[in-house]
From TrEMBL:
Topological type in the membrane: Multi-pass membrane protein
Assigned keywords, A-Z: Cell membrane, Membrane, Transmembrane, Transmembrane helix
Principal subcellular localisation of the protein: membrane
Keyword Membrane attributed: yes
GO CC terms: plasma membrane
Signal peptide: none
Superkingdom per UniProt: Bacteria
Localization annotation: Cell membrane
Gene Ontology molecular function: any one: transmembrane transporter activity
Protein's UniProt name: Major facilitator superfamily (MFS) profile domain-containing protein
Transmembrane feature ranges: 79-104, 116-134, 146-163, 169-192, 204-227, 233-254
Length: 272
């Protein structure tokens, strides 16, 4: 499932890049609108077999209680808690900056629609490449070190991005950015998938998303305000936040952690 999601997230920007290059930025939004209409139509055609729920969750109160249990389970695990708090600040530095990439390319650098399309295609290639090389990189580095190294790479790519003044080098920076972000995403999902019991996995993943994206709306708001002054500061500031968060994490036991389906580590020790 994670492979399917990652692939879709990688291919999506490539398709959008081609659409932007051929139809322009505004007209491409109509394709986006039509896609959502198509999704609504196709979802109504899905046939499924109704089964009796076996989790004893039959009311909103029980659903809320189950969600709280998932949150408590996630936060009681020392490694989960450490990674999610660290990732909270990484996303704080990243979310607003990523949303400003297109604005920067069009309004600040002044790229044409075709050039923006090429940059977005390189962004997609970064995500696809990270998926293709993920297992090979993980065979060389421990998961914790790989997570921190990819985060520092994300910080470096963000810092260098505003200093590029043409589509090719901007595309290279975005490629590196999406490559490292893809590695981070896959590593965190692998951690949960390899160490959480199946009956708790959904609740743990939901809790992890809640915690790690808590500051994302604040990041976007701040990025919009800063962009009115100078959009370069959005990328540089995001880079500094990610770098500081990662340097702090380097002084914890995160760099020693290792997790996979077959690896034994502190990640596979269920908290009491």
């Amino acid at each position: 499932m994670q492979m399917a999601i990652s692939t879709a997230e990688a291919i999506g920007p490539a398709i959008s890049g081609l659409l932007i290059s051929t139809m322009g930025l505004f007209n491409s939004l109509w394709i986006n609108f039509a896609t959502f209409i198509m999704l609504l139509t196709t979802l109504s055609l899905i046939r499924y077999q109704k089964t009796e729920p076996n989790n004893n969750i039959t009311s909103p109160k029980q659903l809320w209680s189950s969600s709280i249990q998932g949150l408590h389970y996630t936060l009681r695990n020392p490694l989960f808690r450490l990674i999610l708090i660290w990732n909270l600040f990484v996303n704080f530095g990243l979310s607003g900056a990523v949303l400003m990439i297109l604005f920067h390319l069009k309004e600040i650098i002044g790229l044409t629609s075709s050039e923006i399309g090429l940059v977005m295609t390189m962004s997609a290639l970064g995500g696809i490449t990270s998926g293709a090389l993920f297992s090979r990189i993980q065979a060389i580095f421990s998961s914790g070190k790989m997570l921190l190294m990819s985060s520092l790479t994300t910080s470096l790519a963000l810092f260098l991005f505003p200093f590029q003044d043409n589509w090719f080098f901007s595309g290279i920076m975005v490629f590196i950015l999406m490559f490292s972000v893809g590695l981070n995403s896959r590593l965190i999902h692998l951690l949960f998938q390899s160490s959480v019991p199946a009956n708790k996995l959904g609740r743990v993943i939901s809790a992890s998303r809640l915690i790690s994206t808590l500051l994302a709306p604040v990041s976007v708001l701040i990025a919009g305000l800063i962009a009115k002054i100078n959009s370069d500061y959005v990328f540089i500031g995001g880079s500094i936040i990610i770098a500081i968060s990662t340097i702090i994490a380097l002084n914890t036991n995160l760099k020693e952690a290792n997790w996979s389906v077959n690896a034994k580590s502190i990640a596979n020790t269920e908290s009491q």
